[in-house]
Design a protein that fits this description.
Elements: H1 2-23, E1 32-38, E2 42-47, H2 53-56, E3 62-66, E4 76-81, E5 87-92, E6 102-111, E7 114-123, H3 127-141, H4 152-157, H5 162-191, H6 200-222, H7 224-230, H8 233-236, H9 241-252, H10 257-285, H11 297-311
Antiparallel strand pairs: 1-2, 2-5, 3-6, 4-5, 6-7
Length: 320
């Protein structure tokens, strides 16, 4: 009986190891064990050994700023040192935006009269939670259709039937994931190093066109019925605002590969959810007694507005 479970043991260990790696438990300095957010307006730094009280409680030894805004320094209100002299807590005047990583720079760390050297530390949420927050944020909290009102042309055009809506949602998710990862690679290794950032939009549109053309060719061969059901809307994916917005967002926020994948997958699945919800209601509306003036697109816009109001309830929600 024990041997039957052994084939599953190794993949399970790999999964656990991957989750630990994604959790980002490491530190930026050999003498610093970890850095974490404490409450709403505090950062805790845990050292591997005791630090001198005179050094730890001196505000001039610490500089803190949000990583996207290095020119705006945060004001430290108070510094406290733990009884064992291993933990230093920095308290700030204002609440910290914990959705953004923060950078803490220190002067030469003093421990038992010895100099350990300066440190540049990055403080951010648990990395797995950060990835999930990007994913759920793009999918539900900041849904590109119902909160940003992007991609409405394809949204209204393919949400009349559930079968077409689901097919378009899946196709759109595949295209946006592939194009976003290619866009991230080109931005990080070509555009950014050679200072060609001003070509972002042109390059990203080209990548989207390439991805859509590939899906068009594959779909024409694999599922001609679904290809015919999409009609002109498959071509409109090229100019879909969402599929252009995602590469621009990941470039602007300097996301890495994992974060870009979460953003693209969340945006694609969010579009799929929006299409499925809308198509389910529009199929019921065909049987409802809708006034002639509101039939078709007018009632569809009314329903989309109600969905937008419902999704507005998620705004500002923080899961991790």
């Amino acid at each position: 009986m024990g041997n039957a479970h052994r084939p599953y043991l190794f993949p399970l260990l790999l999964l656990i190891a991957g989750l630990v790696l994604l959790a980002g438990c490491g530190s930026d300095h050999r003498f610093v064990k970890k850095t974490t957010f404490e409450d709403a307006n505090a950062i805790t730094i845990e050292f591997a050994g005791p630090v001198d009280a005179s050094w730890a409680t001196d505000k001039s030894n610490f500089t803190v700023y949000e990583k996207p805004d290095p020119d705006i320094l945060l004001t430290i209100q108070d510094i406290s040192l733990g009884p064992d002299q291993h933990r230093v807590t920095l308290t700030f005047q204002d609440d910290l935006n914990q959705d953004q990583p923060h950078v803490v720079t220190t002067t030469d760390i003093r421990s038992q009269g010895r100099s350990i050297g300066p440190a540049v530390l990055t403080v951010k949420k648990l990395y797995m939670g950060y990835l999930l927050s990007i994913f759920i944020g793009a999918m539900v909290i900041s849904n590109f259709v119902f909160t940003k009102y992007l991609g409405l042309c394809v949204f209204f055009g393919t949400s009349q039937r559930k079968s077409t809506a689901v097919g378009m949602g899946i196709t759109f998710t595949m295209v946006i994931v592939v194009s976003a990862m290619m866009a991230w690679f080109l931005y990080q290794f070509v555009l950014k190093p050679y200072r060609l950032d001003f070509l972002q939009i042109v390059v990203f549109i080209g990548l989207v066109s390439l991805s859509v053309q590939a899906v068009d060719t594959i779909l024409r061969k694999v599922n001609p019925a679904l290809f015919k059901a999409f009609g002109v809307y498959l071509v409109l994916v090229i100019a879909n605002c969402i599929i252009i917005a995602v590469p621009l967002i990941l470039a602007d926020n300097e996301y890495n590969a994992f974060e870009s994948l979460m953003l693209a997958a969340g945006a694609g699945l969010g579009f799929l959810i929006a299409l499925f919800l809308m198509s389910s209601v529009r199929e019921r509306l065909d049987l409802a007694n809708v006034p002639p003036t509101f039939r078709g697109l007018p009632i569809a816009f009314v329903v989309a507005g109600l969905f937008a109001l419902a999704f507005l309830g998620f705004s500002g929600m923080s899961i991790f």
